[in-house]
Automatic annotation (TrEMBL):
Pfam families on file: dCMP_cyt_deam_1
Organism ancestry: Bacteria, Bacillati, Actinomycetota, Actinomycetes, Pseudonocardiales
Enzyme Commission numbers on file: 3.5.4.26
SUPFAM superfamilies: Cytidine deaminase-like
Transmembrane segments: none
Alphabetized InterPro entries for the sequence: CMP_dCMP_dom (IPR002125), Cytidine_deaminase-like (IPR016193)
Organism of origin: Actinoalloteichus hymeniacidonis
Keyword terms of this UniProt record: Hydrolase
One GO molecular-function entry: diaminohydroxyphosphoribosylaminopyrimidine deaminase activity
Name of the protein this chain belongs to: Diaminohydroxyphosphoribosylaminopyrimidine deaminase
Domain (CMP/dCMP-type deaminase): residue spans on this chain: 5-131
Amino acid sequence: MTDQPRDHRLLLRAIALADRCPPSTHAFSVGAIIADASGEVIATGYSRATDPHDHAEEVALAGLSATDPRLVGATIYSSLEPCSTRASRPRSCTSLILDTPISRVVFAWREPALFVDCQGAELLRGADREVVELPEFAPQARRPNAHLVGGE
């Protein structure tokens, strides 16, 4: 079920987390927030938070057990479409999300084919997860990545 004001507010918070990312020339700066079914934030993450290979969703999920009951009906908000392929680690963010009962994924910016060909949104939809793309927030999500994608 869509709660547009909540989705907008939490997605903007996830986008703001991307500003904390240490700079990189071979990875996107991304922020992620996990909110339970009532909209309470239960985890956050951003790219390269503790390791140069960290992805935002991965960091947020690492703070919770995949069987945490708060994940039932939860939503993960990400400034960028969750990755479906990783060069640096064996498991993609899409795969990590699918290992949980998270039922919704809301993101701002579809991953450009700069590093990999991402199919996260399609794989999540194919696994019966609700995927909400809010492209009106893509310019804000691109901003901390301008050195990679220019004015796209």
